[in-house]
## 1
Amino acid sequence: MTEVAAIAVPRGQGLGSDARLRRRYAAERRFRLYGMGAIALAVLMLGVLLVSIVSKGYSAFVQTEIALDINFDPAVVDPDGKRDPEALANADYGKLVKTAVQSRFPDVGSREEKRKLNELISGGAQFQLRRMVAADPSLIGTTQRVWFTADDNFDMLNKGYMLRSGDEASRQLSDKQIAWFDALAADGRVRKAFNTTFFTAGDSREPEQAGVWGAVVGTILTMLVTLSMTLPVGVATAIYLEEFAPRNRWTDLIEVNINNLAAVPSIVYGLLGLAVFLGFFGLPRSAPLVGGMVLALIVLPTIIIAGRSALKAVPPSIREAALGVGASPLQVVFHHVLPLATPGILTGTIIGMAHALGESAPLLMIGMVAFIVDIPHGVTDPATVLPVQIFLWADSAERAFVERTSAAIMVLLAVLMAMNALAVILRRRFERRW
């Protein structure tokens, strides 16, 4: 009994160990709380950003329309009565719109008031009538009620973004213009409809006629060029460096440079494209071909690094088993290792493409900031992309472009989230855990 007491813990030492243990557990709890707080703050900031974007951009998906009774006067549309397509295309449809507007307000007499009255309707109304007559020439000689897109100022008024009160000189619209619009609304000739123009048209100086389809097509063409160049080159480089390249100072130098290229600012690649692709090779400016080549330089290091990581994740036993049954090194890679590494390679590729999709600085350097109205049909046609289109609209002064900028950001975010979701689905669907 005496010997046991002799080796007992000295007085106070047990209490000190308990105190240190409690402090350690308290520190761990605080660390977890800090981490949870950081995540909560990040989610809060992301939520604030998304709410701000959506609150400013959702209204761009609807557009104010005004109904007019259009008299397709044969003397204006087809004076010769021959239904010649060229004559129908060159008719003065703007006169039909002005006549219909002024017939609703016959008391408007002065030239200045008539000019302001005609501003009710968007300038694209005449092209709408031209398309209607081209599709159905039997409209000539009839009177039809047609819904036209309202001018952007009246659209903002109808959506509540423009004040009705206050000094008339401080507003975009005069009191008479507001009164004319209210009269049409009281007569049931004003409505809000889904803004199909936003998804089917290219860029325009007029906000109510501007759309993202041209930028979407340019983005698709640019991404196709980027993918066609980076995927085969990136995968081939990853396979060589990971499976066949000898371990020496040269391969070490290549690996270091690849890792460094992944951290180079994207605008540097834009300067490279400007100097080499445009200046030296003379490729077309503001084309998806050049944009895709510049973005390929940005994405290539990411795909190489992701590909090497995916190949390295395949267990060595797979290679050893294949070699043991007589497969050549090339067969080992392409018949066994590469199929197992494909999910990781695809995931890295999609993430790299999503990164390229959000780039704007290098594309500004090669001229894709140009004002492009027509929808591109090939990789050599002038085009722009969604990030650059957002940049252009954000720099516009009209209030209507504010909501279209936010709406275009929503479209871009939807595409990015879809690409990242695809990467997650592919990884979960095909990934194998060893």
## 2
Amino acid sequence: MRPDLAAIGAVAALFYAFFLFGGYSKFFRDSDTGWHIRTGEMILRTGSLPHTDPFSFSLAGQPWVAWEWLSDVLMGAVHQSMGLTGVAALYGLAIATGVWLWFRLNWDLGGNFILASMLASPMLSTCNIHWLARPHLLSWVFVLAAVRFCVRLEGRLSRGQMAGVALATAIWTNIHASFFFAVLIPAVWALGSWMRGLIWDVPDESDRTRGYMQTALIAAAASFLNPYGWSLHWHILRYLTDRNLLDRVGEFQSFNFHVEGAIPITIALSVGMAGAAFSLGVRRVEWALLSGLLVAASLRSARTLPMMALVALPFANAAITEVLRSAKGLRPQVRGWIDGFLNYGDRLRVLDSRNNGVLAGAAGCAALVALLAAPGIQAKTGFPRDQFPVEASAAVAKLPADARLFAPDKFGGYLIYKFNGNRKVFFDGRSDFYGAGFLKDYGRIVQARPGWQRLFQSFGCTYALLPDDSSLVGALEGRGWKVLHRDATATLLMAPGSDQSGAN
């Protein structure tokens, strides 16, 4: 029952996520959660996957790949049982599990206790930029588990390990598109093991290299255990290599290091970069390769920053610890300071290792999840009213069933959730489905740039639900559109000659 640092860290992270970060509301600041939930409920209800778009009128009936269908089913089942409180609990527990695995990875690698404690803060600050009720949080758990598996692998795989790798990869493949890391991580380990023997005079590691290659090949084969077969891989490859599309998706853009709260993220990235260099100094080529890859990807896309913090920081801890321990030619006083620091961390780790902490950590997490049922928290759980058309939804409900409602993608996911997918939307967050051409036209419309009227008319929209600060609100009013509802978040407008049908 005595908690170790990993268990304490998991509980502390869950408390921070829920009650300091405000996860019961902030987890829902991305409306994609809405269509994920409704997709999952639809799959549970029909017993089959959707193959055409069920949510929009702009691309109704077009082919759609529900590539995260297993996450959707999990979210839908939890939502049916516990509502949005359950969805918040699900992803809060995913965060806690990830933090527990992060500390365990530090110990697997031989990282210093004190350095791990110091790096936990920038790790959490980096990860929380993508603390959202979306499937990628579940993928972080799989990535950490895959890295730990490679770190702990001693040689060729046993039959049980082969089955475990295949099963875990198959589940991961149907949960999130990051399943390619199940192949990439052991492949990097195999390459690093081979290069180490090529560069340095070290004991033979051929058995481990074969074990890593076995893992990569089994994971690659198991990734085809999905409803779409090889088409899933092709779809994801086209999506991730479509520069015209990704250039129009905010989370794939570089992080703005000038915003408030960027200092911990800058620290995490800097430590990750330093760790990659130190890893080569201690002959850990695989650490350097994976850290360097994640650091480079993080500079290009903010979406990769949490993955970098989760994986590269433990590598940096272990590499820095080993470099400090083996550093030569230092002045006696400096050597004494370093030895004192490292030895103190070692003694703390010895004390910490005597505790298991799993039961205490689980009990602490369960208690925090139970607090989500408090009336005051329940009232605030869900999509934030200052970001989504929560008030305007009552007026939207009064529109004709066949109304063609223009709304931005941020509102689209919420509307899908609010109206259970029955009111078709113009646009939502499935950027891979809508494509670069659609996003380009949408950008021209919402910015009221020259030629927007022709594009707007081509969709035959009869109503518009827009953020109050949208330039399109004034442009539509100038063309005779009538305001049906306006609050502090959204404005609902009706085209001239449309049927108001009792809307306020």
## 3
Amino acid sequence: MNSSQATTVNPTTQKIRAGLKKRYAAERRFQFYGMAGISIAVIALLILFVSIGSKGYTAFVQTHVELEVFFDEQIIDPSGERKTDELSRADYAGVVKATLRARFPEVKNRRDKRQLYGLISTGAAFDLREMVMTDPSIIGTTQRVELIASDDVDMLIKGHIHRDTEESARPIKDKQIAWIEQLEEAGAVSTPFNERLFSRGDSREPELAGIWGAIVGSFYTMLVTLTLSFPLGVAAAIYLEEFAHKSKLAALIEVNINNLAAVPSIVFGLLGLAVFLNFFQMPRSAPLVGGVVLALMTFPTIIIAGRAALKSVPPSIREAAAGLGASRTQVVFHHVLPLAMPGILTGTIIGMARAVGETAPLLMIGMVAFIVDIPQGISDPASVLPVQVYLWADAPERAFVERTSATTMVLLGFLIAMNAAAVMLRKKFERRW
């Protein structure tokens, strides 16, 4: 065999090699596109978290001004009888103003006094009232108290308002900045952890606003949602997958369930408005109504996930149980359902995670109301975390921007925790057949 014959390659072999080369190239392109897609998604997620975190992390601290407060008996309790009603109605705002005048005695002008009083939040008066109601013995004494600063002072200390900006372009005046700098030099300005954010309800004043009311409202709403959607959704999945005969009615129900999973959430809000509020006259802006609406929205997800989990149980389990004399019901509830429960729980958690972040259906049933009090039950007026974000995002005050972002961070934390729980449940209880 000469050299020319040795180097000659069969045309079929050439075609195969060319095809392999194309397939390998296509595989590399597919891997590249996949990695590029994942990278873009991760980068977008990081940008989202950095954007929200950079705007919201300062909300977890709050500016306070430490002052010597004289609890003047002539203002708080002129009669000296220490009656609860009289102590409760006392002019604590006057005590705050007197404290500021004592700290800055050079301020005489009425206009300057108004600016001076603007350094401290109106909520400081309620804090002093709470101190007196807790311990009336402080009346007539001087106490060193950390008073909550106003939202403009808070924004200035945190750097959201720049001191070198022209006076006409910022809400805080030069004289106020000079007084703040005096307090800073005296070490009277501090930024401790903002416990008020996690212990109070909503407020018109951003420095007094908290998310505890929204957290409690979300808890009650999700409690109602889970109580209604989980047992009924699992029951529907069991019936459709294990007991329903293959008929046109069953096929129609299955199609409608799949369609409901794709219905926009605001449609469920319209349903709740028309049926639960207008027809059944259920309480408006209450977790009870919100939970029922979100339960209807969560039903399809739980049913679809439940059917998939039941279908994944091998037929040999059913056959073995039936072979030992178990009835159809015993086969399903004693053998199939326990094995399918991890998948059902995973689907339920994912459905609940979607529900906890919903806003549109809750807006339709009136949960957009301004609620100050912490709800004590499922029938009390309440807000929820997504609606709280919606309300604060529309507020004009600069301090609400950081609280909007901080609330979003808390909501994202809940969603991440719920999805992580779903992953852990699947990993812990998943069985491979």
